[in-house]
Amino acid sequence: MYEMTIRLQADGNRCLYEQIYEHIKQEIKEGKLLAGERLPSTRFLAEYLQVARSTVDYAYGQLLSEGYIEARPYKGHFVCPVEELFRIEDMEFVGTSPWEREKEGDVPREVYIGSRREKVKDLEHEGKYNDHRVIDFSPFDIDMSGFPFGVWKKITKNILSYANSDLFARGESQGDYGLRQTVSRYLHSSRGVNCSPEQIIIGAGNDYLLLLLEKILGPHIHIAMENPTYKRSYQIFRSFGYHIATVDMDECGMEAKMLERQNVDIAYVMPSHQFPMGTVMPIGRRMELLKWAGRAPGRYLIEDDYDSEFRYHGKPIPALQASDQQGRVIYMGTFSKAIAPAIRVGFMVLPETLLHKYLKECSFYSCTVSRIDQSIINEFIREGYFERHLNKMRKIYGAKHELLLEGLQPLKAVFDISGENAGLHILLTSKKGTPEGALVERAAKCRVRVYGLSENMVKDREGSKTVLAGFGGLTNDEIREGLERLRRAWLDAE
Amino acid sequence: MYEMTIRLQADGNRCLYEQIYEHIKQEIKEGKLLAGERLPSTRFLAEYLQVARSTVDYAYGQLLSEGYIEARPYKGHFVCPVEELFRIEDMEFVGTSPWEREKEGDVPREVYIGSRREKVKDLEHEGKYNDHRVIDFSPFDIDMSGFPFGVWKKITKNILSYANSDLFARGESQGDYGLRQTVSRYLHSSRGVNCSPEQIIIGAGNDYLLLLLEKILGPHIHIAMENPTYKRSYQIFRSFGYHIATVDMDECGMEAKMLERQNVDIAYVMPSHQFPMGTVMPIGRRMELLKWAGRAPGRYLIEDDYDSEFRYHGKPIPALQASDQQGRVIYMGTFSKAIAPAIRVGFMVLPETLLHKYLKECSFYSCTVSRIDQSIINEFIREGYFERHLNKMRKIYGAKHELLLEGLQPLKAVFDISGENAGLHILLTSKKGTPEGALVERAAKCRVRVYGLSENMVKDREGSKTVLAGFGGLTNDEIREGLERLRRAWLDAE
Questions:
Q1: So what's the pLDDT on residue A124?
Q2: Burial tier of B159 (Cβ tally within 10 Å: 0-12, 13-18, 19+)
Q3: Cα gap A61→A113, rounded to integer Å
Q4: Which of A181, B287, B325, B336 has the most CB atoms less than 10 A away?
């Protein structure tokens, strides 16, 4: 067992639980406490440090909530793999700990809201699953129970308190420089993206940013998309009148050789976690795509990094943009998935050539995000709340993900499971070749909604036997009950 | 003098000043108190009603601030012309008076902020005009000193207090139905616009809404614009690759006969207050334009009603859409001018044919305004704050406008003044034919910024002799000093 030496200071500058939390967190970050290592029991540590047990409980609770440690029933607390932790290490401005902020009176306690709310929901639902409520395994829903409403409100209030007419005046077209600085640091530290704040454009969601990008790229674009792909982007490109070529995928993602054969200028890809397939593009394929883009002027890759934050196994995957040496990647991301869908804040990183075009031809389009919302997001990230929120959500989603995979064990005889390393959904493919339509229909009869893969296919060349099951918006009990119903729906029939 | 009979109730249900305020407001609205009529002095009324003088002062202050009455130095208080008052009469939900809301503890006093802030600013500037500060008569700046920050913060706080995860979830593509209901009622009562909430699309500013409209209208559009016109819309249409035809204006606006000769599908007009000319399009010309649109399928008029709220003489001008019988008008408006530029909320009303196309082809574009911002705007209008704010701003802008026109008297010998009935700027045209460049340059030498009309010309067929002078963002003292400098710059030279 790990031996802990904490010099606790009782001078009142920092609470005891804060000192314990900070110490353990630091040890984990520095690799002195290794993944899988067991922490001393709270009872032992409290006696050892001569503090109340609740003090240690509180410190562990915070570490749990932020994803640094995990609890295993009857076994104790263990250190989580540190390379899986979302970190914004290089961001100089993440300074104060949550307790320091709390002492200053500007942070309500938020730590357990996620699980608490969920519990409330579970209790409400208990014994009600025999009713006619449909359990919806939507791949698009997210869990809002973990959202730090209190912090959000507090930041909003603070910003409005100091707001003067400047904040209500027209801002910069690309978004406030301060927010762009924050986003560029965040993207660098968490995704390896190399960009200056000058390259960033803040906009009200990806749909809008694509509308703006269309104006920057100019007319008559031929674009390649993965098949299957994200349907809304496909609809958007179609509404642009783009000539859309579909490129099939293998287990590494978009097939670069097939791309070569297409007469296209742009390829739209999701290398970190392809939707809907869940494919992670390995570095070799990435280099092939970058080479393709570099071979002719005017070729670009649009990297849609829509949900890179949630990954359950292995190291975080850096963005494709991180490997781009020739300025060929247009990087797009959003806070809608990681924070909340209603927070209409996305960002686009333009390579130099396109930035030049934007500044010359399109910079008169005014920013679509209010300066107040920009300030709130900026504070949320700068003050470290975003990092904490992501770690908390990774933990919540990780638990649901595990629950789902466990519950799917009995279905493994008749289904292949894929896309299980990241994101908020998995894919189930019938080994017996049952068409997706039949799978969706049988599930619906048992009051469960799953989604046919073909809804995301641009060209349906062969009958799909695959369905998508998302878990982001469901409670643990709903997942359990939904799986029970799916087993009934599919196993009895197969 | 008007004889007042108020039955004051001392039962504590309503404050005394509230009863006085409500009574006088009602009398004005019902036409019992006529425009120009003098109110009793506060001293007289206080004695007559047997209340403290401060009670009457407070009631008059509220009426002043909302624009129902005006104060003339050494003469007393007079009723403002009622038809010029902005009213949202038919909106059933405007119920509670400001005091009732205050009693419920949800409204901070906002009444005097406008003038107070301005005074502060004036004091700061006093005696400093000999420094090198430039006075900028920008036609785009607005006065933020009248913005009800307190109310805005309070509404935001209330909304966030009751916010649940629904408010942070994805909303409807067209915007929340509740807000669309409110906007449709507002447009009907204040602008005569006939539309259902279903026809409205909420979006983050006009630029975005035009981007969306482009997708609805489809490619290869030929559009007619007034010359001169609003430059940003011109840039936007150009970035769409539209074929743009310019149509000259006479004193009634876009010349319908010239429009006939153009091979265009769409005409973009600002009938209520053309930018930059300030022209108000009379009903005859409106009918000609509507007839033009009705003569061929696929023809539409885009009505940009960007600042219809501020009008100083005569009755409010209804929207062109109000006269549209055949569904040919696309109506666009924004809250950026009347509330604050940073409030990125605009709206577009689609005629049935285009609504059908939108629903079929473009409704997947997600709404660009956060649901929180939508809720704030909705409350702001529903609770009557918008109406009060507009009346207050009309009063503030009206005073500045008058100050500007008075100060321009000495320049009338050498300048024609136009566009003086509405909006936040006027036009000055040199009678001697001095080119605008020389006018701008001479003004700049005296540290005043004015704007050449040609900046808004699409085709500059002859050398412009006209400059624009806006007053929205200037204090009274800045306007006075700016005019003094302009007289020096232009009269000495002419």
A1: 37
A2: buried
A3: 12
A4: B336
At residue B12, the pLDDT reads: 56
Does the pLDDT value for residue B116 go beyond 70? no
**How far is Cα B424 from Cα B420, in angstroms, rounded to an integer?**
9
Distance from C-alpha of B16 to C-alpha of A383, rounded to nearest angstrom: 48
pLDDT in tens, A301-329: 999 998 777 777 666 678 999 999 999 99
- The reply to whether residue B144 touches residue A204, judged by beta carbons under 8 angstroms, is no
Contact flag A370-B373 (C-beta cutoff 8 Å): yes
DSSP letter, residue B69: E
- Cis before B276 (ω within 30): yes
CB contact under 8 Å between B204 and A207, yes or no, is no
Rg, C-alpha atoms of chain A = 24
CA distance B265 to B222: 6
Asked if residue A100 lies in contact with residue A61, where contact means CB atoms within 8 angstroms, the answer is no
Per-residue pLDDT at B461: 57
Amino acid identity, position B259? L
The residue assigned the tokens 């686009």 is A348
The count of residues in chain B is: 494
Nearest CA distance, A317 vs chain B (angstrom): 27
Taking the whole predicted model, whether its pTM rises above 0.80 is answered as: no
CB-CB contact of A299 with A266 (8 Å): yes
**Beta-carbon count within 10 A of B26 CB:** 11
Q: Which helix (H) or strand (E) holds B225?
A: strand B222-227
Chain B neighbours among A 224-243 (CB < 8 Å)?
A: 232, 235-236, 239-241
pLDDT of residue B493: 59
A130 burial via Cβ count (<10 Å: 0-12, 13-18, 19+): exposed
DSSP category for residue A7: -
Token couple for A480? 């359990």
CB B288 within 8 A of CB B247: no
What's the residue count for chain A?
494
Minimal CA–CA distance to A468: which of A129, A251, A230?
A230
**Angle ∠(A260,A263,A267) on CA atoms, nearest 5:** 70
pLDDT single digits (tens) A243-253: 999 998 998 89
The DSSP-derived string for A247-314 is EEEETTEE-HHHHHHS--SEEEE--SS-TTT-----HHHHHHHHHHHHTSTT-EEEEE-TTTT-B-SS
B342 with A171: Cβ contact below 8 A: yes
Put simply, the chain B residues between 157 and 176 with a CB less than 8 A from any chain A CB are 157, 160-161, 163, 165, 167-171
CA–CA distance, A455 with A448 (Å, rounded to integer):
17
What are B303's two structure tokens? 């009505």
Residue B156 pLDDT > 60: yes
Residue B277 has pLDDT above 70, yes or no: yes
A144 touching B, CB under 8 A? yes
Helices A476-491 and A113-125: crossing angle in degrees, nearest 10, is 50
Spatial contact of B82 and B31, defined as CB atoms under 8 Å apart: yes
Identify the pLDDT of residue B132: 66
ipTM, two decimals, is: 0.70
Query: What is the token pair recorded at B139?
Result: 């036609």
Look up residue B347 and give its two tokens: 């709206």
